[in-house]
Amino acid sequence: MKAYVFPGQGAQFVGMGRDLYDNYPAAREMFEHANEILGFRISDLMFDGTDDDLRRTSVTQPAVFIHSVISYKVSTLELPDMVAGHSLGEYSALVAAEVLSFEDALLLVSQRAEAMQQACELQPSTMAAVIGLPDEVVDDICDSIHDNVVRAANFNCPGQVVISGDIEGVDKACALLKEHGAKRALKLNVSGAFHSPLMQPAANTLREAIMQTHFNATHCPVYQNVSAYPQTDPQTIQQNLVEQLTSPVRWTQTVRNMIADGATEFYEFGPGDVLKGLIRKINPEVILN
Questions:
Q1: Would you call 87 a catalytic residue per the annotation?
Q2: What percent of the chain has pLDDT over 70?
């Protein structure tokens, strides 16, 4: 069975999508349509902007989404048997599963990016990558810090977890994690505490937009970040998208569940191949494309 996966924020790079624009008329049309929907030429920033341009959340998230969906649309592959996306990538996955239209998903991604940026500005916060500890140890140490907000945010692959929270909480957690044997606990250059309770203002803002958007029945199961289990019910998918902003991305368990349910080949659509690297560490026996 074929599983299609889609990356999230962090996969972007200057020049992303130019080859698609130059070589596929259908891609060119979709890029121009995206420019119209957003009200600015995001394609120019993707092709010829700066690293700083692409690091702005309001640009990064729609840029990665657009690249991912267009990469999928111009491929000659058959429809997927199952899909999943890492954080932001879940919106691309929902387009591939025919739950959302490209237009509706792009509008939601743009609103999500703005809401997350506003939440970041309410309180200084950050994230850190933790290498070399079991998931449950990272979880327990974060839970042991009561005076600050700090949570495990991304379970990316065995031995690689990202934590998220207020700056003091992340600093405390990093120190404790190193004491417990982490090979690394390194703060990331991000604008805020994604997938933590500090994103609740963004979730509150996005909830109304998600609930007002039409979600179709799925073509195939969507393995969502919040639970790591397959979903097909549109209302459940909507609710999980809202909860995703304040909940951890359970990528390790998602991939394991997809494999347990029959996935033998994984195809990554989007800039870079970050997810292929994570999947290889989760299960080196599956076929990666």
A1: yes
A2: 100
The residue annotated as part of the active site, out of 43, 71, 86, 195, is 195
Cα distance between residue 252 and residue 260, in whole Å = 12
DSSP assignments along 44-84, one per residue: HHHHH--HHHHHSHHHHHHHHHHHHHHHHHHS-PPPPSEEE
The three-class DSSP label of residue 124 is coil
pLDDT 10s digits, 108-145? 999 999 999 999 999 899 999 999 999 999 999 999 99
d(CA 265, CA 61): 26
Catalytic residue among 43, 87, 110, 196: 87
Residue 160 in 3-state DSSP? Answer: strand
* Residue among 40, 37, 39 nearest 69 (CA): 37
10 SS3 class: coil
Whole-number pLDDT of residue 57 = 86
